[in-house]
Amino acid sequence: MKTHGENENLYEVTAYTEDSLGLLYSISGIFARRSLDIEKLLCYPSAIEGVFKIKIYAWASPELIRQAVLQIEKKVDVIKAYYELDTQRSKKEVEEVKEILRKREEKENK
Amino acid sequence: MTGGEILLESIIAQGADTIFGYPGGQIMPVYDKLYDYQDRLRHILVRHEQGAVHAAQGYARIKGAPGVVMLTSGPGATNAVTGIADALIDSTPLVVIAGQVGNAALGTDAFQETDYIGLTAPISKWNHQIRSAADVAQSVARAFYIASTGRPGPVVLDMTKDAQNGIAEYIPATCSFIRSYDPCPVPEESVLDRAAAMIDAAEKPLVVFGHGVMLSGAEKELSEFLSKGDIPAGSTLLGLSCLDSDDPHYIGMVGMHGNLAPNIMTQQCDLLIAVGMRFDDRVTGTLESYARQAKKIHIDIDAAELDKLVKVDLPVLGDAKYVLTELTKKIREASRPEWMMQPIMEASVEKHKVIDPELYPEGGPLKQGEVVAAVSKACEGKAVIVTDVGQHQMTAARYSRFHRNRSMITSGGLGTMGFGLPAAIGAKIADPEREVCLFVGDGGFQMTIQELGTIMQEGTGVKIVLIDNNWLGNVRQWQELFFDRRYSFTRMQNPDYAAIAAAYGIAYRRVEERSELDSAVQEMFETEGAFILDVHVAEAANVFPMIPPGKSVNQIMLNETDWI
Ligand SMILES: Cc1ncc(C[n+]2csc(CCOP(=O)(O)OP(=O)(O)O)c2C)c(N)n1
Q: What percent of chain B has pLDDT over 70?
């Protein structure tokens, strides 16, 4: 296991996703390519029906985690991804993901 | 209908009429149905699956619509991997359909089973395994939608035998919305206002544009924007031909072997406006010193590219065509005569030090630049130029003139040797009316030379200019300049290309003398159908200017001994 640099913190990354076969590969691959250690990875249904949650705990610098999360979000089957140092935000996240889905559907129906 | 028939109906429903492919065990049910669709779908039988993908890439770049590839599982599918990776990094829309073993055999190491979802997850924009006939129509519609929208890319459908043989009702499907995917982000008005204000305030603005301009069809909008703001612009390798070579604001190509003006002016400008490009390291040189003095605006449709390598003052997330149209409305009409003089000065240094010795040498063997210039002149800058990877690629990019858009097809991000020949075949099939001219090195030619068989069978009239130097020239150049002339395994013996051309029934001419060059080029273009022009050029020649690796974009070698 590699040692963590001074600038590295343990981040909690949360991706809200569709149920998709290749997605876990792609997401873990994004961390592997930048040699970011994944400490823990969880997948489970979110509070929104039909939407899944992938949680990844990984060590990274603030800049690398920001870029990794953008690359996660770029995946077609990812609705939104977040990262943070603590775990206080999840209620707010659910509201925000609902709002994103509502807006996109509204844009489509226009 | 069977899933195989639904697949073909669904491809046709997407407006596609050409498939590049190669059959095999796990895709046979689809091929069997394809036999009955020959009046509606043209299938090009390539000679290797890598060739199928590159041909589809060439096709897609000309058409601006996804190229379609069909393969068998296992080795067929793995052979395609290089092309898929190339298409992802160069944003080329593809729909790749691979056969897969039956549902019950998945995961059992069955004959010709590979985990294609796992293999292609990191190199495709999206992939999906189809396990039932009922899922086919919707999956194909999604695949085309994802491949062609937003930042385009390759999409892989892994289709099990059950999905191909299963029976379902064909319900035509369309896809124009996926809730987890927003392909056309629109920037806030306030962001555009800020960008316009930055442009208006700049004294020495510089645009660097890339493939994104072509992908969004923003060629005209770019030219109008530059004209109103009187802003000079440099192109990346993949942006070439978006602006006419004679556009008064076009100042050349950026990057490692680019022109002096845009590279040097990158370090002089007070505002750098990057449009549809991603700051590849071959463009930026060392990032530490890249355009440090300038404020920066980065316009791109891919959020993950913004602030990735170069931190910018204003990221603008949006489609190039939309953003440029809006910015042109907002900026004031400007005139910057002094700043516009700068490229003229740099160009004259480059002409004297680099271009003249390359194009008008005093005797000696033919130079690569002379060959490119002769071809470019003969086709009046209107042909589609396709290249492989190496010295000839850089030379073709430097010395081709472009007077039509969508005229440059090359492997940029992956730098895939072997790309050129099949990509040229695909381009010619996409637009048979246009002259398609391939520049290829003797190394890269031999990587996919088997596709001469495709040319023979399909009668594809590609003009092949073989830049024959008996070396892996690009690597040889690096060995000469940076590895103490230790030429480790770059000398290459060539086969008898005349005999190869004859074996495939392709017209051929060998050129060694300068005096023959123009007439040989003329003969190539006057000859009906494919042609191999085997030009023997100086063996130990280098491509200049060159920004050596690790240097700034204004630290430029003009030749083996002179630096800027
Ligand atoms: C598939 C692949 N293998 C290796 C390389 C590394 N490489 C880049 S350029 C080059 C030499 C190309 O030689 P040639 O095709 O003869 O073209 P030249 O440079 O002489 O014009 C090599 C080996 C590559 N880009 N792609």
A: 100
A101 touches chain B (CB under 8 A): yes
Segment B44-63 mean pLDDT: 98
Question: Residues 282-321, chain B: which have Cβ within 8 Å of A?
Answer: 302-304, 308
| DSSP output for chain A | -PPPPTT-EEEEEEEEE---SSHHHHHHHHHHHTTPPEEEEEEEE-SSTT-EEEEEEEEE-HHHHHHHHHHHHHSTTEEEEEEESSSTTHHHHHHHHHHHHHHHHHHHH-
Output the ligand 1 site: residues, CB below 6 A: B 388-392, 415-418, 441-444, 467, 469, 471-475
Amino acid B205 reads P
B127 contacts on A by Cβ (under 8 Å): 22
* Chain A contact for B146 (CB, 8 A cutoff): yes
Domains of chain B: 3-165 (3.40.50.970), 189-341 (3.40.50.1220), 365-536 (3.40.50.970)
> Is the CB of A28 inside 8 Å of chain B's CB atoms?
no
- What is the value of pTM for the model shown? 0.96
Contact B304 A74 (CB under 8 A): yes
DSSP tag of B216: T
Between the alpha carbon of residue B496 and those of residues B76, B92, B368, B503, the distances in Å are 30, 35, 21, 11
Shortest-distance Cα residue to atom 2 of ligand 1: B417
In terms of Cβ atoms closer than 10 Å to its own Cβ (0-12, 13-18, 19+), residue B493 is: exposed
Is the Cβ of B128 closer than 8 Å to some Cβ of chain A?
yes
pLDDT tens string B472-484: 999 999 999 999 9
Among protein residues, the one whose CA lies closest to atom 8 of ligand 1: B390
Give residue A85's pLDDT: 83
| Paired tokens of A106 | 């509204």
User: For B309, which DSSP code?
Assistant: S
Answer for the pair B418, B386: CB distance below 8 angstroms, yes or no.
Answer: no
> B179–A101: do the CB atoms touch at under 8 Å?
yes
- Between CA A6 and CA A4 the distance in angstroms is 7
More confident residue, A54 or A1: A54
- Shortest-distance Cα residue to atom 5 of ligand 1: B417
A-B Cβ pairs (cutoff 8 Å, strict): 54
Ramachandran angles phi, psi of A56, nearest 5°: -130, 130
What CATH homologous superfamily does A9-109 map to?
ACT domain (3.30.70.260)
Report chain B residues whose CB lies below 8 A from the CB of A74: 302-304
What are the tens digits of pLDDT across the range B378-426? Answer: 999 999 999 999 999 999 999 999 999 999 999 999 999 999 999 999 9
For chain B, what is the mean pLDDT? 98
**Spatial contact of B535 and B371, defined as CB atoms under 8 Å apart:** yes
E strand residue ranges, B446-557 = 463-468, 507-511, 531-536
Let me know: does B245 contact B403? Beta carbons within 8 Å. Answer: yes
Question: B120 to chain A: which residues are within 8 Å by CB?
Answer: 22
Q: Is the peptide bond before B361 cis (omega within 30 degrees of 0)?
A: no
Q: What is the pLDDT of residues B115-156, one digit of tens each?
A: 999 999 999 999 999 999 999 999 999 999 999 999 999 999
Kindly give the distance from the C-alpha atom of residue B523 to the centroid of ligand 1, in angstroms, as a whole number: 28
Residue whose structure tokens are 């920001």: A66
Domain boundaries, chain A: 9-109
Residue with the larger pLDDT of the pair B321 and A85: B321
